[in-house]
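Why do we bother with holo predictions? Because pocket geometry can differ from the apo form. Keep that in mind while you read this record for S-adenosyl-L-homocysteine.
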Amino acid sequence: MYKLQRLELVENLEKKGITDIALLKALKEVQREKFIPSGVRQHSYKDIALPIGYGQTISQPYTIGIMTQALDVKEGNKVLEIGTGSGYQAALLEKMGAKVYSIERHFDIYNDALNRFDKLGLRVHCKHGDGTIGWEEYAPFDKIIVTAGSPRVPDQLKKQLALSGKMVIPVGDKFSQTLQVLTKIKDDEFEIEDIPEFAFVPLIGREGWKDQ
Ligand code: SAH
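The structure, written out:
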């Protein structure tokens, strides 16, 4: 139903600098409208963030594009996502051939995402809990993507990243963040690249913002 709008959005993202072939293919395949509440579904293919309930949002497609491209996902990569949210980001990663592990702290959001993955036949390993402490059981991860803004890079996530692995995480204050792309060069040594000025909902947890 939304195919034309979807292809148009992907074309726009390509013009804005999203060039990763596997990502573009996934963006063409995943039906974003299936991850969006019915009240705002008609806006599924605008390049904007949209509310998914409980005060949370599904990120803007361009932001998702930039983050996923920076992550440099290869088929078979083990990827940890912090902040499952709607599940759209996880669905893209799964379509790109990654083994996806995703953590969500908000129980209702976690539950909605779980049902959605089942319904759409997506294989995503989900956990309800605080993602700032990672998912030790399945570490190390080739890639880690944090989809909520954090005051700093959580130590546990640094530890659980594989050697040569990459992590993409928005770091800053509660209103505006820089996207940091970290590459693990040695144990506890990282190369850091900054992509400035994005705004995400807060990462809340032991190594994130405190819940009020
Ligand atoms: N990737 C999502 C974007 C979700 S917005 C998507 O594609 O829709 C960020 C999400 O991070 C919210 O659902 C919020 O509840 C969650 N979150 C915030 N702090 C968290 C934490 N410490 N651990 C896990 N999830 C967290």
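The chain has one domain: 3-198.
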